[in-house]
Amino acid sequence: MAEVVPKALILGHSFVRHLKCDLEFAFDSHGAYDIHLHGTTSVHLHGVGGSTVQTLLANDLHMVRDLAPDIVTFEIGTNDLF
Amino acid sequence: MHNASVLNKYVGVVLNDFCTVFCWSHAELNSPHRDLYLRNGVHIYPTGQYLLYWSYLGSILTALSLLGDN
User: Which of A22, A52, A74, B13 could be stapled to A27 by a disulfide with Cβ–Cβ 3.0 to 4.6 Å?
Assistant: First the structure.
């Protein structure tokens, strides 16, 4: 029986999007897509450039519903300051 | 920077009542001693990406410890 590991979702703006892209292209030899959690946690990143609190609420919360993560990290608010 | 600080404090106060929620600060990205931002002042250099990456690890590990407690 496969071990169930916690799921972590990092949800936010372009910082998350760029990091996801950079990890997919292995931008740094010390970086790993699982954020160095070595299979103990499943990590998912979803970022939208220019995202604000309002646009995230309107467009991206489905990620939380669909993935049902144990941990959600919101990287949001920066674009609300402009 | 001031507005961000005020908002961060506000969010921290609002979320303080929730035991499964915490605020996390990317301390290294906010350091005045590092120039981590591209010319547009919005996006970050690969060095900043690297620091952000490790900061996310820290926040996830902190969250995992809370999961363990609950």
Answer: A22
Alpha-carbon dihedral sign for residues A76, A77, B1, B6: negative
Candidate from B4, B49, B63 with C-beta closest to A18: B49
The answer to whether B59 contacts A73, with C-beta atoms less than 8 Å apart, is: yes
Structure confidence by residue, pLDDT tens digits, B36-45: 888 887 788 8
Q: A57-80: buried (b, 16+ CB within 10 Å) or exposed (e) per residue?
A: eeebeebeeebebbbbbbbbbbbb
The token pair at B16 is: 């303080």
CA-to-CA distance for B42 and B52, rounded, in angstroms? 14
- Identify all chain B residues contacting A36, using CB atoms and an 8 Å cutoff: 57
ipTM above 0.85, yes or no: no
pLDDT digits (tens, 9 = 90+) for B3-18: 778 888 888 898 888 9
Q: ∠B36-A45-A61 over CA atoms, to 5°?
A: 115
Instruction: For residue B13, give how far its alpha carbon lies from the nearest alpha carbon of chain A (Å).
Output: 16
